[in-house]
Amino acid sequence: MKAAVYTHYGFPEVLQLKEVAKPAPKDNEVLVRINATAVNSGDVRLRKADPFAVRLFFGLLKPKTNILGSVFSGDVESVGKQVKRFKVGDQVFGHTDMGFGAYAEYICVPEDGSLALKPVDILHDEAAAIPFGGVTALHFIRKAMIEANQKVLVVGASGAVGSAAVQLAKSYGAIVTGVCSTANIDLVKSIGADKVIDYTKEDFTQNGEVYDLIFDAVRAISVSRSLKSLAKNGIMILSAAGMSEMLQGLWISITSKRKVMTGVISHNAADIIFLKELIERGKLKPVVDRAYPLEQIAEAHAYAEKGHKKGNIIINI
Ligand SMILES: NC(=O)c1ccc[n+]([C@@H]2O[C@H](COP(=O)([O-])OP(=O)(O)OC[C@H]3O[C@@H](n4cnc5c(N)ncnc54)[C@H](OP(=O)(O)O)[C@@H]3O)[C@@H](O)[C@H]2O)c1
Known about the structure:
The chain is of the alpha/beta class. Helix content is 27%, strand content 27%. Strand 14 (288-293), helix 10 (297-305) and strand 15 (312-316) form a beta-alpha-beta unit. The longest helix has 13 residues, at 131-143. It is globular and about 60 Å long.
């Protein structure tokens, strides 16, 4: 099968299209013929080994996992002997977690992994735009136990995680303000934000508004500045936190009534099913910036790396 393979860390060009062996499903796995995947910030970090800590988990000198891509939408081509949830021909979408391997024509995934039937009313291209931002935003929003009518601010509302956070917070009945650049105002309004702040024209920390929850999806602003806009017993989610923000967040959580949530997310099949049902109820829309064929995976990475994408970049296989 065709796959985008990388054997050393570096620039987008390290991703090379190659012929590799087609995987065969184990007894508990399904073999999916991938129709669409996406280029996410996680893939870019692994390709570049940035931050350095990536090397500690994924290979010190060269990557141990040679095919990136953590989300997919496609058709079940065959199933292992013990598989009960899926059958040949099912259209499915999902997230491979740290297994990666979705920049390829085929992938084997355990039937009890983060996998669900694709919502019927959306295309594979759109379904592949859901899992990355969806499970990340869901993990934190659930942890924050968000309630109806709470005031929520999403910083980075136009990105993969932020655009999902806006929609999930709205689905819980929150009053949501999205922070984005001028070019993304219409997009952020279209996914349901009650109010939009253009960060190129207004500094939200200076406008006197206070929020019950601040979800900073892009590490755009310092924690100490954001705190000015957080209620005294409010929650701050820093989904893109580095080590220093994690320590700062821990200190704030210990020494005040405010809570700061950071860390690596986890997810499972129930989460993907939950996202599927939200899509079917019209509460979650895929946000797709642009699509590239697998042959142009390096161009897609170069674009993602600029940090200005609107939602998701899709790769058609
Ligand atoms: N904790 C976890 O387990 C976990 C899981 C997934 C992702 N993440 C992390 O989450 C981060 C975000 O990922 P993502 O995929 O959502 O990023 P992304 O899709 O690349 O989104 C970046 C978006 O932020 C906007 N932006 C840039 N500067 C901004 C600012 N100052 N204020 C508001 N918006 C701004 C950009 O548009 P403009 O430039 O036009 O403003 C762009 O739309 C990554 O660092 C990733 O590593 C963490």
